[in-house]
Amino acid sequence: MAGENQFYRLKFNRALEPIKVMMVKRKLDLSLNEWISFVERTKMSIIAHPQEYLGDELPAKDGLVELIENIFKDFLKEQATKRINLIQK
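Structure (tokenized):
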């Protein structure tokens, strides 16, 4: 099961890369709260319509939601770290 999750995590991270790039770009135009809300809405859209974003080869719904949640959690942590690093420079 862990190997399957790793497979889907890598696959979904690649599939979501253009969306992550777009979200980072939008970060420049929005306040922090607006941007976090935008990221949350994007995540919920992906959860509601996974085939549209991730293709047809998907794990069970529970596992899918958990994977997407974790990918977005990691994305937000990465963005927060980048923000802190920029502030410290």
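Residues 61-88 form the longest helix (28 residues). The helical segments are 2-27, 32-48, 50-54, 61-88.
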